[in-house]
Structure formats: C-alpha cells, structure tokens
Amino acid sequence: MVSIGELSQQTGVSTQAIRYYEQIKLLPAPKRADNSYREYDDSDVERLQFVKRARQLDFALGDIAEILAFRDQNEPPCQYVMNVMAQQISAIEERVADLQRLRDELATLHRAGLTMPEDIEMKQCVCHLIKTGLSNEVGNDE
Questions:
Q1: What is the pTM of this model?
Q2: What's the rounded Cα separation, in Å, for the pair 64 and 69?
Q3: Over 14-78, what HEC string results?
Q4: What is the distance between the alpha carbons of residues 142 and 120, in angstroms, rounded to a whole number?
Q5: Which domain CATH number covers 8?
Q6: Residue 4 predicted with pLDDT over 60
Q7: Residue 137 pLDDT more than 90?
Q8: 91 and 130, same structural domain?
Q9: How confident is the model at residue 136 (pLDDT cuts 50, 70, 90)?
C-alpha cells in the first residue's frame, strides 16, 4: 500500500489530479488507513499509469472512463479503443491541414509585409493586409 504522495511519485501524476480522477470516478475511492489517509495498491498504480498514458495520447476523460468501464466489467475495450483512435487520427489530420494552411497564409503575408512600408494608420502596411486579407489586396491590384 502506498500513500497519495508515493502514488504521485511513482506515476508522475500530481496529487491534485489523482484526487480529481477519484472525484470523476476514473480511479476508485481509495482505501483509508486508520489515520484516514488514502492508501493505494498496485492495481491503482496500474490504472493511473493507464490514465496518464491515455491522456498523453489525447484521449478524452470520457473515453478513458468508457475504456475503464469495459475493463471493470471484464469486457474487452479493444474495438472501442480502435474507434476512438481512428477518430483521433482523423481529427489530427484535419488539424495538421489547418495548421499547414495557416503557415502558408502567414508566410505569404510575411513576404508581402517585407515589401510594404510602416504605416501608423495601418492603411498601407502589413497590418492592413491582416485586416483585409491578401486576396483582397491582390484583387485590387489587377
């Protein structure tokens, strides 16, 4: 049996997060020592390590709770986990595409801004392009 501080050290999860995970039922209510201190066993360490790793993989707390519920009911969560991972991969691919579009737009604005004067009124400088968009400025030049 280990204390909450020892559990925190073993898993790298803060005591505050451990208490929160207990509150939202990701971790079962711990046993209590005679002095009312929380006591955890190896199964709690293992469960918390799973929660920590799943969070590092950006699993939502609700998804982690669902996975653990399967496990607690002696049912394999594998298909559920595979579905969650497929959804996450799709969401990540969308975010990557969005970030690439953002990078490209910023790079284009930066290149255009290098050729523009500084303007306190922000009518002929890069700040104006941020407000109006580069495509509007290009359209006005034609």
A1: 0.76
A2: 8
A3: CHHHHHHHHHCCCCCCCEECCCCCEEECHHHHHHHHHHHHHHHCCCCHHHHHHHHHHHHCCCCCH
A4: 26
A5: 1.10.1660.10
A6: yes
A7: no
A8: yes
A9: low
- Structural domain for 137, as ranges: 85-141
Find where tokens 């199964």 sit. Answer: 43
Other CB atoms within a 10 A radius of the CB of residue 114 amount to 8
Contact status, residue 88 vs residue 80, Cβ threshold 8 Å:
no
From 57, 51, 67, 61, select the one nearest 88 (Cα to Cα). Answer: 57
Same domain membership, residue 92 and residue 130: yes
**Total domains, the chain:** 2
By residue count, the chain amounts to 142
pLDDT of residue 140: 46
